Amino acid sequence: HVPKETKLVVIGHSIGCHINLEILKLAPELPIIRSFLLFPTIERMSESPNGRIATPLLCWLRYALYVFAYLLLKPWPEKIKSFMIRIGLRMMNLQNEFSVLNVLEPFCLANAAYLGGQEMMQVVKRDNETIRTYLPKLTFYYGTIDAWCPTAYYEDIKKEFPEGDIRLCEKKIPHAFILRFPQEMADMVADWLKDDLSK
Fold first, then answer.
1. 1 among known catalytic residues
2. Which of 37, 70, 124, 178 has its CB surrounded by the most CB atoms within 10 Å?
3. What is its EC number (predicted)?
4. Active site residue 18
5. pLDDT tens, position by position, for the chain (199 residues)?
6. Active-site entry in 48, 127, 146, 195
């Protein structure tokens, strides 16, 4: 559905970077001029520090989460759910700028747990072939304090593709940058894009 004359810029964050590479591989006809992979979880997810914790929870214990969600959260009134979410956001020092009530719906929790489990099992090996094919279009941005893709992953991919545009964050921006650093990331990506857009 993308017109041939329309040029695309694809930006992925976390598991979105894995999807980014899949788009390049499965739809090579798309007119993608640039692809940004921010804090990319494109390999060894279950081996990462967060993955070692998340894998048993999401792959083996998720059924316990389903039972907990249906027995405890389903009967809660909306006011209690809303109150609990506000407390959680306040504890994380975040403002409630959007409606997140669905987060405490059992169906939503079950789907999120299933998706997370699938990611842990399927995102294992880095797709070097696709990266090699599209390397001139790719910009990778790794974090220094990222427990989903530690700096060892950055160092490995940098060795494999020394000519690639593979950057390491110098600002200590966390993996979940959208919570506190959305403007900084937007400004950075816009700056990186200037040359491509001017062509």
1. no
2. 37
3. 3.1.1.13
4. no
5. 888 888 999 999 999 999 999 999 999 999 999 999 999 999 999 999 999 999 998 888 777 777 777 777 677 777 777 777 777 767 766 665 555 556 666 777 788 888 999 999 999 999 999 999 999 999 999 999 999 999 999 999 999 999 999 999 999 999 999 888 999 999 999 999 988 877 7
6. 146
